[in-house]
Write a structure and sequence with these properties.
There is one protein chain. This protein is mostly beta strands. The protein has one domain: Porin (Beta Barrel). Helices cover 10% and strands 61% of the residues. The protein contains one helix and eleven strands. Strands 1-3-4-5-6-8-9-11 form an eight-stranded antiparallel β-barrel.
Length: 244
């Protein structure tokens, strides 16, 4: 029995001293690498956009009791874009990378619409129209980035040249050209093309109103200027940007 006890004690001692060495030889699985952001949006870029403008307008003869029905406006628009992005890591595990940007653009436009009647009871004949000749924006952009994808909200200032008028059978056409400013808001999504560190494409929507625009200095409608009211425009466009 004494011999068995000695053998058993020796086996226990051997196992205790050998365990650390055996454990050191067992291969361990390396922890998974931390998620990384493969694409960085920081930098200056330039590009262009092309798309459509659609909305509606309404004309009234002061004191705004004689008004046309709202009529549709539609057309195309396109032009250059310039902007700058900053990408920041804010430490959130789900959306760690956010992009903040400042962008300006300018678009020539051929958007027009009209109605077959004029406001008031003056019997001039003809109809009212509203044209969007061009517009530009200065906006901020912000949103989370997911490597090559950048969905964003945008908003800021819009300036536009709007040409409302009236075509009268008796007195001819009378119109005005107004350059006005207002606010704009919208959103979009931009995608950096794989294999290219510089090119990206985007789809963007903007909304902007243009409040009362007075015209009709010839008083085709009557003794007071007519007004283009409730001008509201939507822009849906595609774009491409090149990063420097």
């Amino acid at each position: 029995m004494r011999t068995v006890s000695i053998a058993f004690s020796a086996a226990i001692s051997l196992f205790v001293f050998a365990s650390p060495a055996l454990a050191a030889d067992i291969p361990t699985k390396a922890p998974p690498p931390a998620a990384t952001q493969a694409y960085n949006w920081t930098g200056l870029y330039a590009g262009g956009t092309f798309g459509g403008v659609f909305g509606h307008s309404e004309h009234c003869d002061p004191p705004y009791v004689f008004c046309t029905a709202p009529f549709d406006i539609a057309g195309i628009a396109g032009g250059p874009t310039l902007g700058y992005n900053w990408q920041a890591t804010i430490g959130l595990p789900v959306m760690p990378n956010w992009v903040y940007g400042l962008e300006t653009d300018f678009s020539w436009s051929r958007a027009t619409g009209g109605t077959g009647s004029i406001p008031g009871v003056y019997g001039c004949g003809g109809g009212c129209f509203t044209n969007v000749d061009w517009f530009g924006t200065v906006r901020g952009r912000v949103g989370p980035s997911f490597n090559n994808w950048f969905p964003y909200f945008t908003g800021g200032l819009v300036y536009a040249r709007i040409s409302p008028g009236i075509a009268a059978a008796i007195l001819g056409e009378d119109s005005a050209i107004a350059v006005k400013t207002d606010w704009t808001i919208g959103g979009g999504i931009e995608y950096a093309i794989p294999g290219s560190a510089r090119w990206s494409v985007k789809l963007e929507y903007l909304y902007f109103p243009m409040h009362n625009i007075f015209y009709d200095n010839a008083h085709v409608c009557g003794g007071l200027d007519c007004t283009a009211v409730l001008n509201q425009f939507n822009v849906l466009r595609l774009g491409a940007n090149y990063r420097f």
